[in-house]
């Protein structure tokens, strides 16, 4: 029962489809692969007989499984033990620690993103950072479970992180005081000029309902209703496909939201508006969706749907480019296979795999003092080893057009700080809606 609950909430590890494994659905082994299995067994026997030290069978079998999955793509994986425990912790949404989402990359602990408002974010840890030492002890080459366990601890205690940040010449230390981490999938605030900002941090369960609640609260707080809405999907790594459909449906009244196409007939589906939510909650309200290189998977589904239907203006940076669907397949009671089974497509038939969602208006995050240096080392789907290739055969120069200098954006982070602007992208989106609202236009006339 405990494992079944984990499968239902697998969105937090960006498994966007959950289908139970059945005997009938399992592919038959091709009889011609007998010699390949024989080669695998021969390697196993040689290692057992001749390796310099005795090797445990479990280590060899796990290595073979990991190797098979790693040869497919960056998102297929075998989950057990600590991986499932981390999933359970994220589902509970309450633990003591730093508030970091991390992964192992070439033996190093890489920060995927700090959770908004977490101790790590407050201390200045950023997506793309590599953590090399904990309290002065090198952790390169250690198991990810071991590093994560050391970073967690009682609220109020501190730990010193040594960070290598791409774009900087030298590593530096950051001391972070652990706190109680309460994951908030949706937050919101009302800006001047009756512009609402709804931030979706992850696509966990009930995100659609939470956004609906945020809209109602903002509309009640704004005198005379909202004149504009910003949906902030930056640094959102994705999650549940169902919740992405619900969120899109809140703002659409007709047409396709997303489609997924797999090799197996049962993996091809279409999702349309008016199936999850009737009507549109923000009818007639101008809308901006903010994305960046950390917006992936379910975030790209929402941005792509609202862009193709011309319901919102997409601003920010080109998104991550994860256009594949992972299915979580149980393997017994304490393990599962996260396997890529389909690609998804926007209403216009575009695959975001590799290329991502290109903003209608590219707005750089000028308030980040390390922006230019970090941009040279920014990781997207197309940079991951073994990623799926987009059928459209996108060229590198096409993907690089939106990173060229724009004469409109010349202010430095220091100049913006003097003006009290800490988040330039959000400020630009809010100001755009404020300047173009119907009330502002009436006052000008």
Describe the sheet with the most strands.
Answer: 6 strands, antiparallel
Helical content, roughly?
25-40%
In CATH's first tier, which class of the largest domain applies?
Answer: Alpha Beta
In CATH terms, what is the architecture of the largest domain? Alpha-Beta Complex
What structural category arises from helix and sheet content? alpha+beta
Rounded to the nearest angstrom, the radius of gyration is 23 Å
Number of helices: 14
Shape: globular
State the low-pLDDT regions, or none.
1-26, 396-400, 441-445
Strand content: 15-25%
Average predicted local confidence, pLDDT: 81
Can you put this structure into words, describing what you see?
- With 445 residues, the protein is an alpha+beta fold.
- It folds into two domains: 94-182, PDZ domain (Pdz3 Domain, Roll), CATH 2.30.42; 186-444, 2-enoyl-CoA Hydratase, Chain A, domain 1 (Alpha-Beta Complex), CATH 3.90.226.10.
- It contains 14 helices and 19 strands.
- It has helices at 2-8, 34-50, 57-70, 82-92, 119-122, 144-151, 207-221, 241-250, 298-308, 371-375, 396-400, 413-418, 424-436, 438-444; strands at residues 77-80, 94-97, 100-105, 108-114, 130-134, 137-138, 158-164, 172-177, 179-182, 186-191, 195-200, 228-232, 256-262, 269-272, 287-291, 313-316, 324-330, 335-345, 361-362.
- The strands form four sheets. Strands 3, 4, 5, 6, 7 and 8 form a six-stranded antiparallel beta sheet that branches. The chain has a six-stranded mixed beta sheet with strand order 10-11-12-15-16-19, with helices on both faces.
- Helix 7 (207-221) runs parallel beside helix 8.
- The longest helix is centred in the first third of the chain and has 17 residues, at 34-50.
- The radius of gyration is 23 Å and the shape is globular.
- The protein starts with a helix and ends with a helix.
């Amino acid at each position: 029962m405990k494992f079944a609950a984990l499968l239902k909430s697998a969105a937090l590890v960006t498994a966007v489809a959950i289908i139970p494994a059945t005997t009938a659905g399992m592919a038959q082994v091709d009889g011609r692969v007998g010699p390949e299995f024989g080669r695998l067994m021969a390697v196993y026997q040689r290692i057992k007989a001749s390796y310099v030290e005795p090797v445990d069978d479990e280590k060899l079998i796990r290595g073979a499984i990991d190797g098979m999955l790693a040869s497919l793509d960056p998102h297929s994986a075998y989950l057990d033990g600590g991986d499932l425990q981390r999933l359970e912790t994220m589902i509970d949404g309450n633990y003591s620690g730093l508030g970091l989402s991390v992964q192992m990359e070439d033996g190093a602990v890489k920060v995927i993103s700090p959770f908004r408002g977490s101790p790590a974010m407050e201390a200045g840890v950023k997506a793309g950072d590599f953590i090399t030492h904990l309290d002065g002890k090198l952790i390169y080459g250690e198991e990810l479970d071991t590093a994560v366990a050391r970073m967690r601890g009682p609220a109020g205690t501190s730990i010193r992180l040594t960070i290598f940040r791409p774009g900087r010449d030298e590593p530096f230390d950051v001391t972070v005081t652990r706190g109680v981490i309460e994951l908030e999938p949706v937050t919101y605030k009302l800006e001047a000029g009756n512009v609402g900002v709804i931030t979706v941090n992850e696509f966990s369960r009930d995100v659609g309902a939470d956004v609906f609640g945020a809209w109602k609260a903002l509309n009640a707080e704004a005198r005379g209703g909202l004149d504009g809405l910003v949906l902030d999907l930056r640094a959102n790594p994705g999650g549940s496909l169902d919740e992405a459909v619900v969120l899109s449906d809140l703002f659409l009244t007709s047409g396709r939201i997303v489609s997924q196409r797999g090799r197996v007939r049962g993996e091809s589906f279409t999702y349309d508006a008016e199936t999850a939510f009737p009507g549109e909650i923000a009818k007639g309200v101008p809308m901006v969706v903010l994305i960046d290189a950390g917006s992936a998977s379910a975030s790209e589904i929402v941005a792509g749907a609202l862009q193709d239907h011309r319901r919102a203006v997409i601003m920010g940076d080109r998104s991550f480019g994860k256009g594949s669907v992972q299915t979580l397949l149980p393997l017994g009671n304490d393990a599962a296979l996260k396997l890529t089974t389909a690609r998804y497509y926007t209403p216009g038939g575009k695959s975001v795999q590799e290329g991502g969602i290109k903003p209608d208006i590219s707005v750089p995050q000028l308030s980040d003092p390390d922006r230019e240096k970090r941009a040279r080392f920014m990781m997207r789907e197309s940079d991951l080893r073994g990623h799926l290739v987009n059928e459209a055969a996108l060229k590198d120069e096409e993907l690089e057009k939106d990173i060229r200098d724009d004469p409109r954006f010349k202010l430095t982070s220091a100049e913006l700080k003097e003006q009290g602007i800490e988040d330039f992208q959000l400020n630009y989106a809010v100001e755009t809606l404020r300047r173009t609202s119907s009330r502002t236009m009436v006052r000008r006339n």
